[in-house]
Amino acid sequence: MEDEPLLLPLVVPQGSRIIEESCVESEPTILATWRPANKLDALYLVALGSEDGSTFIFQPKPQHISISETSHIDNNASLRPARPTSPRPSSSGHAAVHGPPSPSISNAGSSYLKSPIGSKGGSFQPSKSRVQAALSKEQAEAPKNYVDYDDEPKKLKSLLKAKEQSKDRGLLDNFLPSLRTGHRRQSTSDSAPSHLGKEPSFSQMSTNNPSSSSTSPPTSPVKESGVTTSVLPIGEISLVAHAIPPRFGVGRATTALHFVEDGTILISLQECGTLCMYSSADGYCLCSIEVASTTIAQPPAAMPSMEENLKGVWKWQKFEIGISGETTFLLLAASDITTTWEKTPAKTRVVVVKFKVANERTFSTPSEYLSKIGEWVVESALDNLGMTVDTTGSPVFYHLSSSKELLFHKLQVLDRVKVTVPSEDSAKQTTGLTNLEIPNPFKIRRPRAVRPVSVYDVRKNEDGLVDLEKLDVSITPPLGEHDEPTAVTCIMDGKLAIISTPNIVKIYAKRENELVLLQEVPFLNCHHVYFSQPDTLVIIGEVEDHLYSLKLDEGEELKFRLIKVTPKEATKGTYTVNGQYIISTYLTSRRFRKLQASPIGLPESKRRTLWKATSRAIRPSVAAITSILPVDLSMFILGYDDGFIRRTSLTELFSPKDSQGTIGEPSDHPLDGSIVHLSLIRNERSGEYCIIGGTDTGGVAVWALQSLKLLARWVLFATPLISVTRLIDDAVGKLKGSALCVASGGTLAILLLDSLDIAFVVPGGPGRLEKICLGEDNLLLVYANDLARLWDVKTQEFWRSMTREKAEELLEQGGWLECLIEPGGPTFSSALLGRTGPTFSSYDSASSLVLNMRHLLSGSEGSSPPTPGMPTSDMMPKVKPLDVFRNLVASCHTFDMEESIDLIIRDTFEILPNPTYSGVCGYGGATSLVNVSSNSVWTVSPRYTALRLLFISSILRSSMTADDLEQRVNDILLYYTASLPDTIGKRFCRPLFETFAKYWFDPITEIRTSARSLFEAAIGQLSDADVVNVVEEYRHRLPCLQPDINKEADWAVTALIITGNLAVARHAVISPSTITDIVTSIVTFLHDHSSAHRVIGIDLSSRGLQIWQTYTDTMEILRSLFELATSSRKDPEKSSIRDPGTQARLAVLHVASSSTPLFMTKLLLDLTHPRSPEHSRSVMQLLAFLIRKRPLILYPSLSRIMEAVVRSMDPNSAFRETVLNAATEIIGEVVRLYPTVDFHATSQKLVVGTHEGAAILYDMKTSTRLYVLEGHKKRLAACSFSPDGRRLVTLSLEESIVMVWKVGTSFSSFFFPGAPPSQGHSGSQPFKTLNFNVGSEAHMTTAATLEWVGFDWPSERTARLKIRDSILTFNT
Question: 102-143: per-residue pLDDT in tens?
Fold first, then answer.
C-alpha cells in the first residue's frame, strides 16, 4: 500500500457555531431525506445541498440515537441503497413532477413496462406559468373532466389495489429498500435477508431545477455509522457535518442528492459533473469522479454518434439508480445550456456510472467505487426522459423525442465490451472539416517528457459497457398542436403516463400502443407524483395559494378528484416530500434558517420544526475571516470581510479568546469588499515576497509581505479571484516572472510583478475555464464545453477557436506551460500547511487549515526558504515545536470527560480548553468538517473515532521531548487507548480497524506506533464473538483467496494486516481453517521476491511464528527470513520500515528472542549444512549481526555455534575461501563480547567454555578440536590464555573456583595426539585449583558476567580476575 496521507482539517476558532453559521448563510439548492421504510411519520437523515457544491448533513439528536456496541464491525450486514423519491423544486422553490414508489403491482396486465428501480422519482417539471385567473378554489376542488373507457379503469384500479407476493430478486433486494409508502414486503425465509418483490412504477430521475430533492427509505441497521435504525417519529435533528467536495464554488452547485444503502451512503451530483459518495455518518468522501472526464469511444448502437453532439456547455442536474443483472448503476443526465442565436432542438447528455454496492466495495479500492461505463446524447429535453423497468425487472430507458414520440430502450450492462462491426455506409461517411489536419503554426522549442494530468483531460481509450435495445413499444401522445411537454413520467407498469404542459397536467392511460387521455388538471405548477398509501396516487400541484393533490376515488371507475392538501407556504424555500410530510428549509423573517416538517392534508398545527439555527443570516458586527494564507507555523495571513488583511501566528490563532474579534496586525488600507482569496508570490528578480489577494467584488490587490503595505489595487473582474499562478517556466517567454490571475467567470489577467502593472486582460469564454496553456507569445485557453481559444500575447488579439482535440494535439508537440485552474482538494502553500479551497464559499471552509501530520511530526516546520522578503525572527518569532503541540493538544483533546486527565493536560502543556472544530479529509482531497460538541466527538462514526485517536496519540507521542513529560504523556495515552470506551459508554463508536491498518507501516515513527498501539488496544476490548465476526468479515478478502491480479490489492493487504494481527493476539477463538488461510497469505507475500508488500509477510511471520508452526513449515519461513536478512541491501528510495532487508533483520532478532529453540535449530542447521558457499557466507553474516545485537540469545548455544564456525574454516572445505572473512569476523566478535571464549593468536588456539563446566580447545590451523578440559561441575563464567599461550585459566562463579591448566605443547603430546598435556599429576585434575569467596556476586546473572567478569595478565604467569568491583590476583 502507498502511504495514506494523514491530513488534519482544523477550523480557526472564531465563534462557537461557525459551521452552523455557514449553513445559515448558504444558498440551498436541494434537500434529501431518509426514513425507515415501515413508518410514514418517521424521519432519520436530512441532507441539504448548497450553491457552492457542499452538503450539510443532519441526524437525529444524540438522545434519539442507539449506538451499537459492535459498531466497529463495518460490513457484516448486506446494506441496501435507499430509494430517493421526491423531485426537484422549481426555481421558485417548488419541486417538479416526480415518481415515487407506487403500491404493489400485480403481474396481470398486457403492458410491457413496469416500475423503475428505485431512486428519485419523477422525471419532468413544468416550466413557470402564470396563475389561471378564471379558476376559483371551488372550481379547483370540484371533480373535473372525468373520462371513462370501458374496463380500462377497472384494470388500472386493480393495479393500484393489488397485493403482490414477495419474490427473491438477489442483488436488487440487497440494494433497494421497502416502498416508502410503508407497504413492507416480507422475505421468503426468516434466515435470509429481506428481499423486495417487484418494485412500484415510478420515474426515478430528479428534474433540472437547482432546488431538487430526494428521499430514501431503507430498513436494515446501519453498521458502518454505528447507528441502529430504530423507528423514530418526526423529531428534532442536529447538524453533524459539512461535506465539502474536492472542487467547489461558483458553477459547482449541488443539483441532486440521494441516500442509499439504508441511509449510510449519500450520493451527490454537482452541476459541473462531479459525482461524490459520502458517508452520511461523518461526511467522509469515499469516492468522487468527473463524469465528463472520460469519453466512451462509441455510444450504444441504438444511439447516434457523439462526435458532434458532445459539443456544448452541459449542466448535470439529475440521476437515478437502476440494476441490470448483478450490476448497480447510476443514470445521470445533463442538459445543454449553450447560448446560441438560433433556437436549436433540446439535447440531453446521458451517462451511466457503475456503482459498487457495499459487498462489492469490500473487494475494491476507492477509485473503483464509481466508474463510467456508458454515454450517449438524445434529442430530448432533460425532463422528458427517465427510466422504468419491464416485467422481467430489466431497466428501460425512455425519452420523448423532438417529434413528440415516446421511445423505449431496454438497457443492459455488459460484462465486457461489445464489439460492433461498422456498416459500409457508416464507414463511407465523412465528418467534414473535423477530419482536416491543422498544421502546427508554432515553433517547437523543447520536447516535453510528461504532461501534467488533469481531471478534465478527456481520454477516449475506453469502450462502453452499456447496450440499448430499442423496443417495439413507441407511442405518440395525443397532444394539442401548441402543447409543449415540459416533463414526462411513466408509472404503474407503464399503464399511466403523466405529461405536464405549462398550465395543465394530462393523465394518460396506455392501451396497447397508444395513450388515451383520462383527465386534464389545470395545475399552475406540478411538483410531485407519488403514492402516499398503497392505493392512493397523489399528484401535488399548485392552485392559487394552496397545494392540491389528485387522489384516486374509491369507486370502480378510474377517476381522480382534486383536493386541497396544504398551504403553499409549507413549501417555501427548498423542499422535498417524505411519506406524509413535506420537509422544507427556509429563512424566517428574523433571518434564522429553519427545517420543518409539514404533514400533507393535516391542520397547520401539526407542523413541526426539525431544526432551527441559533445564528442569524446576518453578517456579524465584528469582522469575520473570509480567507486564510498559511505561510509557515510562525506566520498566517488572514483576509477579513472588512477588506483588511492581518498577520498572526499559530499560537495566537488558536489561543482561547474571551470574545469574538479580529486578531493580528492589520494592513494599512482596506479594500472594498471581503477578501476571498490570498496567494503568496515571489518576485524572481528581487527575491522579495508579496501577497496577491482578491475581493468578492472582483478587485485585485498586492501587499508587501513584510510590512503588509498596500502596493497596488485594481478592479479587474466582475467575479471573485480564484487562482494566482507564478509564471517561472522558460516556455512563457517574456511573461516569465509575472503572475497569472484568474477569476471565477473565466476572465484572466497578467500581472507584471516588477512594475506592478497589468499587462493585459483576457475576457471569459463560452464555458467554465479549465486549463490555461502558455507558449512563448501564445495563450491557449481550454473550456469545459470542449472548445479552446488561442490568443496572441504580443498583440493581445484573439487568434482562433478550435476543438479540445486540436488543442491537445498542439500541446502534445511541446513547448507549453500548462496551468490547472482548480486542481482539487486542499491547496498547500507549503509541505506542512494548506487550506480547504482556493476561494471563499462559506465561513467555516474559508477559515479552515489543513495540517499535513506526517510532515509536522517528521520535525520540519514547513517554513519558506530564507529570502530577503521573508519575515525575520524580530518580526514574527519562530514557533517552538512544543508550542505547536500545545496548541494542537488544546484543539484535539476532549475536555470535561475525565477530570484527572484534564488536570494532567493543563499542568503538562499549560493550556486551557479551546474547543476547535475538526474534520477528516477523504478521497480526492474532499473535506468534511464535523459539527459536534466535545462530549459527542466519539459517537460520530468508527472512522472519525479512529482518525481522531490517531491524531491525538501521534501529537502526544511527538511531544515527549523532555524526560519530565514522558510519564504524564504516557498516562494520557493510556487513558485514550484503554479507558476512553468506558468513559463514553454504549454510545462510543469503536475505531475502524482499516484506518489503523493504513498506517501500519507509516514512515513516521509516532504515527506508526500510535496506529499499532491503538489497534492492539481495540483488539483487547473485543469479546470473543466480536473477534470471530471481524475475522469472518475480512477472511474472504485474504490474498491467498484472490486471483493473481488482486493478490496485492490494497483491500487484500488491509485484510491480511487486520486478520493476521487478530490471529497473533486472539488465535484461540479463530477457526483453524481461517488461520490456515492467514498463514498461506503470509507465506505468499514472504516468498514472493517481486511483491511490493513483502514487509507484511516479514512482520507477521516473525511475530506469530509460534502460532504458525502448527499450520505451515516454519523452517521455510525462517529460511526466507535468513535469506532476506543477509542478502538484501538497503534500498535508498525506501524508508527503513518498508525495506525488506531491514525488516527481515529485525524479524530475525524478534524470532531469536521469542522462539529461541526453533531459531537456534534452524541457525545451527544452516551453519553445519549450508546449501552453497554463498549461503554459508550469508549465514555467517547473519550470525555476526546477531552477536552484535542479541548476544544473550546465543549464549546458551555458544559452544555449538563455535563448533560450526571452526568447522567451516577447515582447509579441506570447499567453502573455506568464501566464509573465511566472515568466520574470522565472528570469532573476533565472540572473543570481544563473551568472557567464556578466548583466542591465542601465536599458537592459533581457541577455547570455548560451556554451560556444563567443560573447556573445549580448538586448533585453528587445522580447524579441529584438540581436547576437552573437564574440571568444573557448573557453568563457566570466563576463560583466558596467558600471554605465552602455555596456561589457561577457567572461572566458575557458581563454584567460586578458578582452575589453572597447562595447555602448551609437551613431550607427551607427540605420543598421545589429541590428549591434553600432563598437568603434573595423575588423572584429569587441573594444574592448580584456587578457591575464593565474593559473596552474592557468585550468583551474578549471565548478562552481568558479560559486562563485569574478565581476566587480564600483568605478566606471563600472573593473572588478575575482575568481578565487578572485586579484584583477585594469583600466580599460574
Answer: 333 333 333 334 434 333 333 333 333 333 333 343 433 433
**Cα 725 to Cα 742: distance, rounded to the nearest angstrom:** 9
Confidence band (pLDDT; 50, 70, 90) for 1152?
confident
pLDDT digit string, tens, across residues 989-1005: 999 999 999 999 999 99
Listed in sequence order, the residues at least 6 apart from 158 whose beta carbon sits closer than 8 Å to its beta carbon are 106, 108
Grid cell digits, residue 32: 434529501
Only one residue has cell 470574545, namely 659
For the chain, percent of residues with pLDDT exceeding 90: 34
What does residue 770 show for φ and ψ, rounded to 5 degrees?
-110, -35
Q: How far apart are CA 209 and CA 398, in angstroms?
A: 20
Give the integer Cα–Cα distance in Å for 1153 and 1176. Answer: 23
Distance, in Å, from the CA atom of 819 to the CA atom of 772, rounded to the nearest integer, reads: 5
Q: How far is CA 606 from the centre of its chain?
A: 42
Of 700, 739, 698, residue with least CA distance to 720:
698
> Rg (Cα) of the chain, in Å, rounded?
39
Find how far residue 668's CA is from the centre of its chain. Answer: 43
Q: Of all helices (H) and strands (E), which one includes residue 119?
A: none
Could you tell me which residue, 1035 or 1137, shows the higher pLDDT?
Answer: 1035
Residue-wise DSSP of 681-735: EE-TTT--EEEEEEETTSEEEEEETTT--EEEEEE--SS-EEEEEE--SGGGGGG
Neighbours of 216 (CB within 10 A): 36
Please spell the DSSP secondary structure of 489-522, one letter per residue.
EEETTTTEEEEE-SS-EEEEEEETTEEEEEEEE-
Q: How many CB atoms lie within 10 A of CB 325?
A: 14
Q: Phi, psi (5° rounding) for residue 467?
A: -120, 135
Round to whole Å and give the CA distance between 791 and 26: 37
Give the span between the Cα atoms of 77 and 1033, in whole angstroms. 9
* Bridge partners for 1240 per DSSP: 1245
pLDDT of residue 563: 65
Three cell numbers written together for 148: 371513462
Beta-carbon contacts of residue 1163 (< 8 Å; ≥ 6 apart): 1122, 1179, 1182, 1183, 1201
Can you read off the three cell numbers belonging to residue 267?
A: 450520493
Question: What is the grid cell recorded at 633?
Answer: 507555523
Are the CB atoms for 253 and 244 separated by under 8 Å?
no
Alpha helices, DSSP H only, in 706-850? 804-812, 843-846
| Residue 291 cell numbers, joined | 463524469
Work out the angle at residue 211's Cα, subtended by the Cα atoms of residues 174 and 528, and round it to the nearest 5 degrees.
65
944 sits in which H/E element: helix 942-958
The residue with cell 498572526 is: 648
| CA pair distance 1025, 755, nearest whole angstrom | 72
The Cα–Cα gap between 411 and 425 comes to 26
Are 1246 and 1206 in contact, with CB atoms under 8 Å apart?
yes
Q: Which residues pair with 724 in a beta bridge?
A: 741
d(CA 1182, CA 1148): 9
- Tell me how many degrees the CA angle 797-799-805 measures, rounded to the nearest 5: 140
Rounded CA separation 1243/1264 (Å): 14
Q: What letter represents residue 808's amino acid?
A: E
At 448, give phi and psi (nearest 5°).
-110, 120
3-class SS at 538? Answer: strand
Cell numbers 426555481: residue: 91
Q: Which residue carries 565487578 as its cell?
A: 1364
Residue 643, sorted as left (phi over 0), alpha (psi -120 to 50) or beta, turns out to be left
For residues 1210 and 1264, give the distance between their C-alpha atoms in angstroms, rounded to a whole number: 8
pLDDT of 489 higher than 90:
no
Which has the closest alpha carbon to 494: 861, 127, 86, 113?
113
pLDDT of residue 98: 35
In sequence order, which residues have a C-beta less than 8 Å from that of residue 914 and are 6 or more positions away?
Answer: 13, 654, 655, 656, 887, 890, 891
